[in-house]
Amino acid sequence: MNIIFKKESYIYFLIIFVLLIGIFTFRDFGIGIEEHFQRKSGLYWLNYLLNFFDLSHYKLITQEKLNKIETFTPNLFSIEQVPFYGVLFDLPLAFIEVALNINEPHIYFQIRHFIIFLIFIISAYFFYKLILMRYENTYLAIFGFVAFIITPRIYGNIFFDNKDVFFLSIFTINFYFLFKFYLFKSYKNLALLSLFCALSTSSRIIGIFIPITFVFIVLLSLFNKDEFKKNVQHLFIFVFLYFFFLLIHWPYLWTLEASQVFNFFEPFFYAMNPIVFFNGEFYQSKYLPLSYLPVWMLISSPIYLIILSSVGFIYQSKRLFNRLININEKKEIFKYDLWKTDKEKFDLFTYINLILVIILYISINLALLSGWRHFYFLNFFIVYYSCFTIYFSFKFIKIDTFKKMFSYILALFIIINLYDLVRYHPYQSVFFNKLVSNERRLKFEIDTQSLSRAEFLNEISKIKKNKIKIGTASWTPLEDARFLLPERKWKKFQFVGTNLKEADFIYTNYYYEININLNDKYEIPENFSLYKNLIIDGTRVYSIYKKNNL
């Protein structure tokens, strides 16, 4: 009984608690705007692999599903246009769908939602273990676990985002195995590190920063002559295993032609260039101001995490700068000057990766949209540096009373954070903090994943009418959301797109790909009146308009 109530057991109670919440709420979330494409990608590559096996029954089912996708969602990109997307999540989920022959649309999307939730919780546990190894403090590790999960914008995506949240999950596990290798330099840990470096790279190309940084630090370590041979050995094994794992699990590499190898990275930076509404102005996606990403992170993250992580990053920068300018040439330069322990080496590794991300963002005109969703992997750094700040704060605070006060303040912030999750449910992905007023929130795109369209269709399906014409006054494929409803309900809907005058009801989540000040494509006709307006904490999520004569 005493073992159960030891502090080391608290994490397992927390995991069980979070899992129970997920089990009872994962069906509440809508369908993400990219989920149909991700599912199509999984089925496409499954169909490709089945050509190498005598499994005609599964191939027939897969082809039928692909044909149905072309029928009901014909506007999706062809996979041939963007074959480089990773299949680490989509391919296994496609196999599950085909092997079990799941035909009810809302079932296979709910399965996808629950599994991405499980993967994220697993990664949160790895984050807990990483913080525990780094700082040897169970309570700090528990704080890291909780903060990692309950950041509202992250939590709001963990039930449907099998692209950005999935990459965050793999990215986090990758850092855990990196740190474990630094502490316990076994070949097993080196192999696991190589594997997850490959998985990170295929999941999102920016994941290549991890193996690049690892190789860089190993090269720095070569200045330590005592471990020169061992470091060279580790380097060669890592590089070999990294490319081996990358090649065997990423089908895109199997299809590359020789001419494509030389411009390997070019396709990853191709993107559409729609209009993006940011801070009250319309911009082309490729020409957003540099403030786009930092402003979005600043206004949509918990304030206490912004402060804690900023302090930790500044402290780490200062410490590294002081060591650089005080290098003692008589010492073995990098082993004793840039890092004193393997834990500090990991801090340097983390810091370099974050700097590389910042350099990439500043130096390349990335076509961004949907807030900082494509950079949700930065949640790892935010929470890690928050833990870094807390750890050193407790080392510097000598008076127990002040330590307790600091702990109570952190607990209060966590409680406020949890309260935000409850009141935004299931739209935590549209969270804004108190740094932005209700009026200013209207100057940003809100429901960029178009989660609210599923709730809208579910509500419209309850209206007692055989046929309902539905229009869309925003840039969202509204008909895709019907896949979260039982297929028998689909017959009631007649989608008229942006032919708004023909509609009975009009949906809008105020997400546009055009400048609505110059284009009246989405203007609500005069013979429509507001039917419903969903506002959470001053944030306008979506509106429904109804024709006056209905």
Characterize the structure shown:
The structure is a single chain. This protein is α/β, with parallel strands linked by helices and 550 residues long. The protein has two domains: 114-254 and 271-424, no CATH class; 450-547, no CATH class. It contains 21 helices and seven strands. The chain has helices spanning 10-25, 35-50, 56-72, 90-99, 105-135, 138-150, 152-155, 164-183, 187-203, 209-221, 228-249, 251-254, 258-261, 292-300, 303-325, 333-336, 342-363, 379-396, 400-424, 438-441, 452-460, and strands at residues 275-278, 281-284, 468-472, 493-497, 505-508, 528-536, 539-547. The strands form two sheets. A five-stranded mixed sheet has the order 4-3-5-7-6, with helices on one face. A two-stranded antiparallel ribbon has the order 1-2. Helix 1 (10-25) runs antiparallel to helix 5, helix 2 (35-50) packs antiparallel against helix 3 (56-72) and helix 9 (187-203) crosses helix 11 (228-249). 38% of the residues are buried. The model is unreliable at 332-336 (pLDDT under 50).
